[in-house]
Fold these 2 entries.
Entry 1:
Amino acid sequence: MTGSSDSRLYVALVHYPVVDKNGETIASAVTNLDLHDIARVCRTYGVKGYYVITPLADQKVLVNRILDHWVSGAGGRYNPKRQQALERVHVKDTFVQSVDEIAAVEGRRPLTVATTARRGMGGMTCQRLKGLVENDTPVLLVFGTAWGLTDDFMARADHILEPLAGPETYNHLSVRSAAAIIVDRLLGR
Amino acid sequence: MTGSSDSRLYVALVHYPVVDKNGETIASAVTNLDLHDIARVCRTYGVKGYYVITPLADQKVLVNRILDHWVSGAGGRYNPKRQQALERVHVKDTFVQSVDEIAAVEGRRPLTVATTARRGMGGMTCQRLKGLVENDTPVLLVFGTAWGLTDDFMARADHILEPLAGPETYNHLSVRSAAAIIVDRLLGR
């Protein structure tokens, strides 16, 4: 499943704990295109694994049904490229489980780097993180769904990545777009 | 609708003429998230306009219903940020209509730059196109839906952008991801 040209960069998409529009902590629903789009980015750029984090039993059933269709079912025969992308998706109950699994594979705990659209939270630049990735440091880059990762979650991450920014203060990208852009900045030529 | 910090970069998402899995020319269906995700990227980075090209009457009705909801309807009151993004979406029957409209706004015909995932087609690098955009050249960056723009369409574009590439030959990004990455490369800091 993992090619020799892969980095030691991993991506996690967190559905809990995240905040809703009002800042309340929730478990968000899984979005089908978040699985596909981000898996395709991961496969194209050589991200080593893509973790989808949800504690909700019905959501795990949904994700596994989608993965079964594309990885071992009719979808994979129809579109083998999609199959190759979705092979890298792992579903976990908790974020800690994804960290533990990567630590077992890599022989050391990955550096956890949380992303946010909010200014004034983050310190690490994409350029600095790119240097760590190129130096073969195992890194788990974390994206929150809904209105983003909770403050508590971000406080426990090793680093917070500086938010993407355009020319104005408007910054409302989908998590799919943000993941694509940041992975390109870290692994693109 | 257009901020002073906007570039003269425009984006078009073409639903006709594009090819299907077998290389046949088709008119593809509009995908709701293509509207939202790419509009949000355009608004965040200061892309001046986002043209959605479809000749199909029912598809135009669908797009305009979505836009009405978010720009002037209940959606805009619920989420004003989404409203600001979708205000930049223009629906046109043909690609030529979008070129003509931009020419009328800018006082000159935009440079048309087609994108593709296929290798060996394109010549222009993102770096070179970034230079043109920074030099205030009006540019219309064109993305194809389904399996991409037709050869005829690409032959008529002024330039073809080199495809995005990871470490391997696998390159199957969604059009949403490709648009996010290329706009970031052209307008990101």
Entry 2:
Amino acid sequence: MHAIGIDIGGTKVAGALVDEAGAIHRLERRPTPAGDPAAILDVVVELIRELSDGHDIVAAGVAAAGFIDVTQSLVYYAPNINWRGEPLRELLEARLPGLDITVDNDANAAGWAEYRFGAGRGTTDMTMLTIGTGVGGAIVSGGQLFRGGFGAAGEIGHLRVVPNGHPCGCGQKGCIEQYGSGRALLRFANEIADAGGIGRELDIARTANGGTLDGAIVSELIQLTDAGALAALHELGDWLGQACASIGAVLDPQVFVFGGGVAVAGDLLLDPIRAAYLAHLPARGFHPEPVFAVAELVNDAGVVGAADLARIHARRS
Amino acid sequence: MHAIGIDIGGTKVAGALVDEAGAIHRLERRPTPAGDPAAILDVVVELIRELSDGHDIVAAGVAAAGFIDVTQSLVYYAPNINWRGEPLRELLEARLPGLDITVDNDANAAGWAEYRFGAGRGTTDMTMLTIGTGVGGAIVSGGQLFRGGFGAAGEIGHLRVVPNGHPCGCGQKGCIEQYGSGRALLRFANEIADAGGIGRELDIARTANGGTLDGAIVSELIQLTDAGALAALHELGDWLGQACASIGAVLDPQVFVFGGGVAVAGDLLLDPIRAAYLAHLPARGFHPEPVFAVAELVNDAGVVGAADLARIHARRS
């Protein structure tokens, strides 16, 4: 049976018709009417109606950044959409009679897709880190998505790695998001460019781009194996590996999966992560070691995971 | 139906006959034949036989410090007992025919007992920290003990809180065990005693004890509300609360439970934990806050939890 997955991002809303094997049969994208919650709701309703057309759909899942309650109904807080305590499921079910609607955190939806159909398949316990502007997290344990007591588990980006460290958008300091995100990679790259030496190519590219480095420039230099760009990536991987040693002590996953734009670097990212993980692993040598892998579904993981979580919910209820 | 719980500690082996409500009907203790794995096994077999006598027992659970595999059978590594890859369930079932034997980490067993019969009852998601010589951890999620992919989850004591921090027995540096344990409390108390001022009473007590502070002395001064001892406890609680802010971002429990000897301080410990948690909470104000509580079962939690986990396993198999 097909289900619909919707992923509300900061710039676009994606919607897909997804089958039970996680394959996308139709994919639509609309610009996000940012700052206008009612208009966003309209876009979601319209996408679900359009994608359902001609299909026997019973469930649709909506993913968004923010805190979602444990019953998959209520958006406590969605920073991009200005929702506070929004009863999203109720609002959508009123406008889409007969459909079972669920709401999930976007990183959880993407993680669930990787667990079911991507780099985590075949395991029971997976931890996923999505390296975007920030660092998103998702935890699967015993084959279940780990939601926590209030639905807000898996906010791994806000694990503190440095007391009084770099300020974070969450209001705290020293979160791994400030050392392991795409934004952190740019900070490291700028520092290396400033220092000269191996940072020369980064500095030249920065000057050519009007004095600013962006993700595309750094990624391209990484692909060209520029020493400065690789040093920035290594610093990122080193922090992520250190964080994984702590996370592993608590969560003990069989596999760590890394998603987001930076993950296309593959082993160039995974190698320093593995090395730092092993160097910082408590009681090293006394228990099996996890696998480190990059995500396989990349951009579509959110819609695929949201659809699958909705299908599971509809079956249970 | 009654079950038997065994808790193998560094100095004693405790065994109990436990009913389905978690009540202990008989409790026995033997000295641990430390450094002699075969003799420890004999003590465990003897205790189980003795406690079973005259009762219709189908299950016995054994708890020990260390890494236990996810099938509750194998001790990968038990630092106190010199077990490495010990097939403990198989060895015990061979000597105790008809009994369903399970093996669990001691902190997990104690945490499970608190969840079922103590400070965590009535919740679905609990995180427990046991403040002893080290810091033990246990996680319950969705009403299930969180074992992880290899059975080693919940080693919260080895969450790193300070890069290049205080050396830890696990081979790493900066683990919360070095800032939130009974041993850390003594270090803080010694530092305060060295500094004079409010440390005067601690210094006097230390001198009277032959130059060494111990847990009993510091606890007594805490009960007497000595300013130096309270400052040491406050420092401990401050670190624990900071760690809980990170742990909460990942695990999102409804309740944090604190066990171990230091927890008898009650609100004197919980108040600084709560204050530091709130001060370090990411995105404060946007989702419900957990409860902070001290453990209720104290010394007997290990045997009660081991018995209950064995009963659950026997029912499933």
